[in-house]
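A quick aside before the break. I want you to see a complete sequence-to-structure record at least once, exactly as it would be stored in a machine-readable document. Don't worry about memorizing anything.
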Amino acid sequence: MITKDAETAAPAAPAPTADEPRPDERKKKRRAWDEAPRWQIYVPLGIYLLFTLIPFYWILLFALRPAGSTSLVPWPMTFEHFDKVWTERSFGTYFQNSVLIAVATLVMTTLVALAGGYALARFDFRIKRGFMLALLCSQFVPGALLLVPLFQIFAELRMINSLASVIIAETVFQLPLSMILISGFIRNVPYSLEEAAWVDGCNRFDAFRIVVLPLLRPGLIAVGSFAFVHAWNHFLFALMFLSDQSKQTIPVGLNTLLSSDSVDLGALAAGGIIAAVPVVVVFAFIQKWLITGFSAGAVKG
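That is the input. The structure line, written in tokens, reads:
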């Protein structure tokens, strides 16, 4: 039973005035403000999909319909353009060279950037800030400015017209950004985990291999994927350092399909699809780790 003293001690909730909205009304207004109508979401997304998917459909249309056809539907479907570029235009050889260059660039970039990123993340030295600044400034240098010094170096080493020259050039071009990203990923790993491994008897290398390296998997996948895609799509280094047709890559092969007199649109579309399929497959398999790696590297630098 509530006594009179308890009733006087418990303050009563103030009643809302006539002009002040009730709590449920405020909640409805806030929900109406936050939630946009569905058409405001779907209409822009639909327009974006149209601008994105129509070019892909147009490429498939030219690649799959017979030569000389003007149909807007690839029927009857033919693969003659793919057979032409793969055999007559040596795209099979170009594909093998591109795979070799891209995979080798991925491995070399990841290994060197992993070692350099660990040094930047775990050690302090005098020129550390200057070195980081130099890495950042190197990203503003276009690849065309590196052609002359790299060409002279490779000529002295007799590496012109060699796939190794393109691999080294691609690795050098990818290292600064990759090193900065991996150093950020390593900083997110608590240093106390390595110290605990040292206490258990591990040396620095074993502690890094057993404790730190498994935690860097998303970051390594993100860095490696960018190195692979850049080496796969890069045109300039392969064009300048490789003169033999049997050592050319996919981007240079696509350039050979263009001429001042005429352009074989079917062959060009088929070559573009061959060039795009590996990149699409790679991103389809690694998208989960790629997003995780970006979010892990964005926590702190």
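Two observations worth writing down. Confidence is low (pLDDT under 50) at residues 1-10, 297-301. The CA atoms of residues 20 and 101 lie 69 Å apart. We'll return to this after the break.
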